[in-house]
Specification:
By secondary structure, the protein is of the alpha+beta class. It has a single domain, classed as Galactose-binding domain-like (Jelly Rolls, Sandwich), CATH 2.60.120.260. It contains two helices and twelve strands. The strands form four sheets. The chain has a four-stranded antiparallel sheet. Strands 4-9-6-7 form a four-stranded antiparallel sheet, with no helix packed on it. It has a two-stranded antiparallel sheet with strand order 2-3. A hairpin with a 2-residue loop joins strand 10 and strand 11. The protein is globular.
């Protein structure tokens, strides 16, 4: 009788352990925010890269350089092996600028999934959340954010007009339940 009780208890413990392991492997992912200057890389050997605007804590384009205007500049982030695969809602956090409405392209593995544009504003440097939409993501995927420095022609500067710098703060991934 003692042996049967011990064997039963052992089987019960093993069954509970197996259930725990199964529940851990099917765990739901939580939202993750990738900060531009902390998680994304921009080519350091290229003339076409973002700089870190420390005051606003965002990536930005040096619009004072004419060759960086009206073109898309890219930064990338590879999802590491611990990333939990699934469907996510992507939100790009950008900063408004009075001198232009920058556009942003979002790519997954070099496939364009969305292009969004900052709204026109009369109050600069406000956080805006641009909805990218839902997409399937898995470990190893490469996320790319591209932004452009553009002018809306409304802010005089020298012989022309000022340019927005395509400032962006982060990419938020929220799991879809």
């Amino acid at each position: 009788m003692k042996t049967i009780l011990i064997l039963s208890m052992t089987l019960f413990v093993l069954a509970c352990s197996k259930t725990t392991l199964l529940s851990q492997s099917t765990e739901q992912p939580s939202a993750v925010e990738f900060i531009a200057h902390e998680h994304f890389t921009t080519p350091s050997d290229s003339d076409y890269s973002f700089y870190y605007d420390e005051y606003r804590q965002v990536f930005a384009i040096n619009a004072g350089n004419p060759k960086l205007r009206d073109r898309f500049i890219r930064a990338t982030k590879k999802l590491d092996a611990n990333f939990i695969s699934g469907e996510y809602l992507l939100t790009l956090n950008t900063i408004t600028e009075e001198d232009g409405e920058s556009s942003y392209q979002v790519f997954v593995n070099d496939e364009l999934i969305a292009t969004v544009t900052n709204p026109e504003t009369h109050k600069a440097f406000q956080l805006v959340q641009l909805q990218i939409g839902k997409t399937e993501l898995k470990a190893g995927d490469v996320l790319t954010i591209a932004a452009n420095a553009v002018t809306n022609g409304k802010i005089p500067e020298g012989d022309g007009t000022a340019y927005a710098r395509g400032r962006w703060q982060s990419l938020l991934l929220t799991p879809v339940q």
